[in-house]
Design a protein that fits this description.
The protein is of the alpha+beta class and 524 residues long. Helix content is 38%, strand content 21%. The protein is built from 17 helices and 18 strands. Helix 12 links the parallel strand 14 and strand 15. Helix 1 runs antiparallel to helix 3, helix 1 packs across helix 11 and helix 6 packs antiparallel against helix 7. The protein binds one RNA strand of 77 nucleotides through helix 13, helix 15 and helix 16.
Length: 524
RNA sequence: CCCCUCGUAGCUCAGUUGGUUAGAGCGCCUGAUUGUGGUUCAGGAAGUCACUAGUUCGACUCUAGUCGAGGGGACCA
């Protein structure tokens, strides 16, 4: 560290914990993912929408903060502006003197892209119809894709787990057709392959919540809360294994670190029933085999039978389009933790592994998720609007590509024009403009230490510039530019130790008028 | 929030049972080369050993607490 300097303002520049600065390399990768997936989404007919980062807290879901702080993982605060309080019918609430009641509403930063979608959709309906007519309304079909940052106040941060991260969603609102669910699986698969994941390096896992829900009903689980708790435990299957799932369903367990995890204390028969169900599907089977197994269970519950039929329909579509088990499998033990899923659920698991810094082989795990959520809009409007969609975790996927060395190579920097003389600055700018007009990314040196050619070269090298253009008084008089090929120089540096020879082989004088054409030709 | 491990130069890390002046590699800076990135060579700067208190003649080293990081767990719309 250099000498300690007193900070006169007393401010320490620092990044907020859990948030990230993203350099140009990571940005390159991130936008490659976004662009490739967006093209696929568009091809399926989804439209590009954006919504604001801030929403009214009550529109975002079940989280209604009571204090001016982050609540249950959602960043929330009071709007500094006073606004009218609205009644359920959209009219302004008034007090006894007919004055509009004003308040500072709670605002929240979005924690996913699905809730703002529900808000947008519901708002559109509310504008067109009075609330009392909504009951008879056939909800219109709306299909959009959207990407952007979402925010969660995560308590424990870890690799690949941030408080600001990007999602890449596509959704169908206003359809109960299971064909749309089959399509979601195909979109996810196509998108991942467009991004560059090889076939068989990932698998889309599909299940239907209705099957488990119905099965549990047969076992006597009627209560929604019990069902949620059971689902949450089953969701941990991958992580903790079947035996520990059984323990958590029953009396609880003590994990390897010695921490006690309390169980759900379910009835022993119920636990056996659930474990038996999951056990059936612990081995990889074909979709047909899974369907046969499900039918053989002879679950009486109608909801469960619905779910099985929906899976059958999805299988028919997927099979017709040659989406075989290499891409999409059925896994009845897949549940996903989220409460709002009502039917088909999907999750994409990366099958790739990597070796971490300590030499341990690790798996990447889930990179996409999705499912059918038929009650999300209902929570806002009171009318049932079926919807289904999926989402790619952009940051997770970017990390996967980095860890498995599939990230694109570092991009070339711009062509770099070195500085020699103040009088030549207009010429430098002229050259830069001509190169840019020819479609070449070009930069003129503006650094503070212009006197030092070494500094300029080091800067260009740092930026991974392919060419440096040197025009001093010698070149200016002759009407030429010395073009130095940094990339070639890098290659030759292994074989040449003499500086002069090195420069001679790597540099060329080019007439000013031919500069753009020459560089264009060299860059291919 | 719970458990474990760790905190020494910008980075990655050495540092003898507690002993006098805390080291290396990489990076950075200067020069050989005042018009040139690599390589080579010669030099140089840089650390309150996370912080606070305690034990001790003496603490980077031991103890406690605080803060921070990593790993595991709980949670995860």
């Amino acid at each position: 560290m250099s000498k300690k300097v007193e900070n006169k303002r007393g401010v320490v520049a620092r990044k907020v914990k859990g948030f990230r600065d993203i350099d140009s390399n990571l940005n390159q990768l991130k936008w490659k993912i976004i662009n490739a997936a967006s093209e696929v989404y568009k091809k399926y007919g989804f439209e590009h929408w954006d919504t604001p980062v801030l929403e009214y807290a009550d529109c975002l879901g079940k989280y209604l903060p009571d204090e001016d702080t982050v609540d249950k993982g959602v960043y929330s605060f009071k709007n500094p502006e006073l606004e009218p309080v609205l009644r359920a019918d959209g009219k302004e609430l008034r007090d006894d003197d007919a004055h509009v009641v004003m308040e500072n509403a709670f605002l929240s930063m979005r924690y996913d892209l699905t809730s703002p979608l529900a808000r947008r959709y519901a708002e559109g309906l509310l504008e067109k119809y009075q609330r009392h007519q909504l009951g008879q309304l056939k909800p219109p079909l709306f299909r959009r894709y959207q990407f952007g940052p979402v925010y969660r106040y995560e308590i424990k941060l870890g690799p690949g787990r941030f408080r600001e991260f990007w999602q890449l969603d596509f959704d169908n609102v206003g359809t109960n057709d299971v064909a749309a669910d089959a399509e979601v699986c195909m979109v996810l698969s196509d998108a991942l392959e467009a991004i560059g994941l090889p076939r068989k390096s990932y698998v889309v896992k599909v299940n239907n919540r209705k099957i488990l829900t119905g099965y549990l009903k047969d076992l006597g689980v009627e209560n929604d809360l019990d069902e949620q708790n059971i689902i949450r435990v089953i969701d941990k299957m991958d992580k903790i294994g079947l035996d520990n799932v059984a323990l958590e369903l029953a009396g609880g367990r003590t994990d390897s670190s010695g921490a006690a995890i309390k169980g759900l204390n379910l009835d022993a028969n119920l636990v056996i029933g659930i474990v038996d169900f999951i056990k059936n599907f612990s081995n990889q089977k074909t979709r047909q085999e899974v369907l046969a197994d499900l039918r053989n269970l002879e679950i009486k519950n109608e909801t469960a039978q619905d779910g099985i039929q929906e899976l059958e329909k999805m299988d028919k579509i997927l099979s017709t389009l040659d989406f075989d088990e290499e891409r999409v499998i059925f896994d009845p033990s897949l549940v996903r933790g989220l409460a709002y899923y009502t039917g088909p659920v999907y999750e994409v698991e990366s099958l790739q592994t990597y070796i971490d810094a300590k030499g341990v082989e690790r798996r990447i795990g889930s990179i996409c998720g999705g499912g059918r959520y038929d009650t999300l809009v209902e929570n806002l409007l009171g009318i049932k609007v079926p919807a289904t969609g999926g989402s790619i975790g952009v940051d997770r996927l970017a990390e996967l590509l980095m860890l498995t060395n599939q990230a694109p190579k570092r991009k070339d920097g711009p062509v770099f024009i070195a500085y020699f003389d103040e009088e030549l600055v207009p010429l430098y700018q002229r050259m830069a403009r001509d190169l840019r007009d020819a479609g070449i990314e070009t930069e003129v040196y503006y650094g503070m230490d212009k006197k030092k050619m070494k500094k300029q070269m080091a800067y260009a090298d740092d930026r991974n510039c392919p060419f440096v253009i040197l025009v001093g008084s010698n070149e200016a008089e002759k009407g030429v530019a010395t073009v130095k090929n940094l990339k070639l120089g890098k290659e030759l540096s292994n074989t040449i130790s003499d500086k002069k020879e090195w420069n001679e082989r790597v540099q060329k004088e080019i007439p000013m008028a031919e500069l753009a054409d020459y560089i264009k030709g060299e860059m291919g």
